[in-house]
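The protein record minuted underneath.
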Amino acid sequence: MSSLEFGLFDPLHGHEFASSSPADVYDEHIGHVQRAEQLGYKYYFIIEHQTASVSHMTSPTVYLTAVAQHTSSIRFGPMIFPLPFYHPVRLAQDVAMLDHISRGRVDFGMGLGTSPHEFTRWAMKYQERRERSEEAMDVILKAWTEETVTHSGKYWEFDEALPQPRPYQQPHPPVWVGAHTAPSFDYAAKHNFHVAQNIDVDPVIAENFEYWRNQWKAQNHSGAMPKSFLTRAVHVAETDAKAREQAEPGLLVSLNAGSEQIRDSRIGFGTREGYGRARELDRVFAGMSTSYDFWIENGLAFVGNPDTVARQLEDSRKRLGYDTFCGNFHFGPMDSTWVENSIELFAKEVMPHFE
């Protein structure tokens, strides 16, 4: 099995902004990135949502420009940009500029978006998100690799657009696909892109990764297989009991913290009618909101002392087969000192098990 690479996955949950100013939250998280870089983490990923409590990261390139200026070696990017919400040439140019500012440390995560109410609030059709995303990605790749962009599609029209600059990394930054269904894995396999997963329980994750590997092999690409990424909640403390005591309250409220504004609004969370994964996700979300054991038994969180977490991670990796792991260390109303201690212990006493 290939070596395991490590990073931080940082949603910037809404609950943090309810108790602190955005300026203070951004400063605190940039400090976490700086310390992670010093400790040897390779990646720092965020996730974008619009009008959602699960993440208040609404302008990733602005935030990541600050990250670039406060770090020197760690790679970073969104996991993911929800492409339906973007003008593709503008996004291509923003990311290319960020790639230059960081001197080639950007990874590009693309995805469709998952929450119907986010689309409703922007007067967009949820059912068109895949078609719109794939067309946007076609334009982005042209903008990164061609002198001009001429494109005539269903959603976008360009006549000899002149995107500037070209990316620092050639031919372009690494592309990851946030994938959860067969069509997304098919798309990633066809285009030789890396893949990332997060929400599903372990048996579903394992099935998805295996499906993607088989589809990738069927494409007969040259070169090494792309990378596979998993993120899970992680909390490490000096003892198993202490780790659970600190992590359990945050895990149980992490999905719902700060969601009152959406719940009480006229549109609410919308409807997932026609969304094939809805029933399974409802089951998973219900379990995550009510049971600490559900988190642990389904591989959704790694909690314990360093040896315990190392065993949990090794077992997960053997069953699922990923090569890139990013821990979500800041979930729910976690005390900042606990988060910082967990990041330190994971780097110093868990990561060495996988060298």
Summary: The chain has a mean pLDDT of 92. The longest strand covers residues 228-236. Residues 5-354 form a domain with the TIM Barrel fold (CATH 3.20.20.30). The two ends are 12 Å apart (CA to CA).
